[in-house]
Amino acid sequence: MPSITLADLLERNKVYAQNHQGFPTIAEALAAGGVFETTLVLTCVDFRVNPDKFLQTQPQDQILVARTPAGRVDAAFVQEVMLFEAFLGLKSVVVIHHTGNYFKNDEIRKFHKDRLPDHEEIDHMVFGAFDNLEQSVRDDVHILKTSPYIPKKLADNTYGFVYDIHSGLLTAVD
Ligand SMILES: [Zn+2]
């Protein structure tokens, strides 16, 4: 498989910018009577999992995308929800995990413990891997729905899905 270089990416960016349509700032949009009613999508960092493609998003859809390894909800993501709830207003949060997620927490720990044997805290690090795909979605949605920091109206509009990397389809997880 050919590997792309940073120089290639920068060259692509120059081509892209020739047809880029600029955006107003948030302040400009508000001054012009703009209303923000955003949806925050959380999914994996994986290059096979691109929510802007599989949800066919447009800027006017106001879809915010957050990405963590495996799309797991962590403390930083809860703070991200708090940030956007205060800053732009959130109408929904959507957690999407995907099929074909391969890594194991203990293998990641071993890799780093082999290089850094004195760092025992690595034994307690969690890197987001899960054993059961649907259950991991349920667990993460549960964290958000029961968080004391998330308003009930938003918790009631928090949903979980599995994305199938073969079919490209989303399936709701209840
Ligand atoms: Zn992944």
Can you give a write-up of this model?
- With 174 residues, the chain is of the alpha/beta class.
- It has one domain: Beta-carbonic Anhydrase, Chain A.
- It is 36% helix and 18% strand.
- A five-stranded mixed β-sheet has the order 2-1-3-4-5.
- The chain is globular, with a radius of gyration of 19 Å.
- The model has no long low-confidence stretch (mean pLDDT 94).
- The site of zinc ion has 5 residues, from loops.
- Residues 44, 46, 70, 98, 101 line the site of zinc ion (ZN).
- This is Carbonic anhydrase.
- GO terms for molecular function: carbonate dehydratase activity; zinc ion binding.
- Belongs to the beta-class carbonic anhydrase family.
Main sheet?
Answer: 5 strands, mixed
> Within the CATH hierarchy, at the fold level, what is the topology?
Beta-carbonic Anhydrase, Chain A
From the alpha carbons, calculate the radius of gyration and give it in angstroms: 19 Å
**Structural class by helix and strand composition:** alpha/beta
**Tally of extended strands?**
5
| The CATH C-level class name | Alpha Beta
